[in-house]
Amino acid sequence: MKHTTILISTLLLVTIVASSDPIESACKQFNRQISIYRPQGVVVNQRVRRNLVGLEMEVYINQEERSNPICDLCANATMSGRRRKLLQINKPHMLVLPGDNFQYTVTKRYRNGPPAQLSCKFRVSGDRMIHSHPAVRHCPENAPRSNVVREINYAAEKRLLEDTINELLTACEAAGTTKMLILLGNYQDIESEKALKRYVIGRLESLLPSVEWDGTVEKVYRSNGRFVFEVKTALMKLKILHLVRGAEAAASIVDYDKQARSTYDRDDYFDEDYDEHESTTGVVEKMLLRN
After folding, report:
1. Which positions ≥6 away from 186 have C-beta within 8 Å?
2. Distance separating alpha carbons of residues 20 and 30, to the nearest angstrom
3. Three-state secondary structure call for residue 288
4. Which domains are present in the chain?
5. 70-74, 131-135, 220-224, 236-240: least confidently modelled range
6. Phi and psi at residue 36, in whole multiples of 5°?
7. What is the pLDDT of residues 211-227, one digit of tens each?
8. In angstroms, rounded to a whole number, what is the distance separating the alpha carbons of residues 98 and 62?
9. How far is it, in rounded angstroms, from Cα 182 to Cα 252?
């Protein structure tokens, strides 16, 4: 009787492990097909094999505690014909930060048979992210100097100097640098985009009243209990960081580009519908996005 009990327990354990491992493996496989860009953007590539005809995806960022989550990305891609093609879902303006909890449900629809659905999640690693604007260095060493004598206009000189610095930041010194800053503390889950921007500007004005924030802040995002805001230029960002240095506001206004990065599991895995050893060039089907 004792041996029978041990045998039954062993069989149950093997069954549980066998049922969970394929799901974990499938999640790792599909994670490999998701590209997350800095400062923003998400692309999902799916190689079409067998009788796959469509791909649907819902993504939720940092919503594991919500009872009624709202998808940050709801999209699908479909194809026609029987030729092997690449299905792609592209959301260029989606903001994902290092440390974010990335949850998604993907549904694969086939020409024959029922659809297959998979729900996964992972913590975003900064090392996993891809810079969407690679460094472009074009700095002439011996730039000609102008010998034209002109009347000094300090306002015009200041604008010219700022434009020149912005060009240098963009072309030479700012590889992977964004125009984004993070506002910490007093997080509120505000749904309205206009109300969110007003709230962030109000807090910034109380922290650093010397800056004309209403004309400085371009965009505002929510992420992982923090507010991320984008200013007009990289030079303006440097000015703000210089102003808060050594002040109390430095604890609340921090550089987006210097935040800590988490660790991401980069184990090798392979998706049966995605062959990474083959060329990824192909016909990209029309993508339908639901906002």
Report:
1. 203
2. 16
3. strand
4. 2-131+263-290 (2.60.40.2140), 178-258 (3.30.70)
5. 131-135
6. -110, 125
7. 999 999 999 998 887 89
8. 12
9. 8
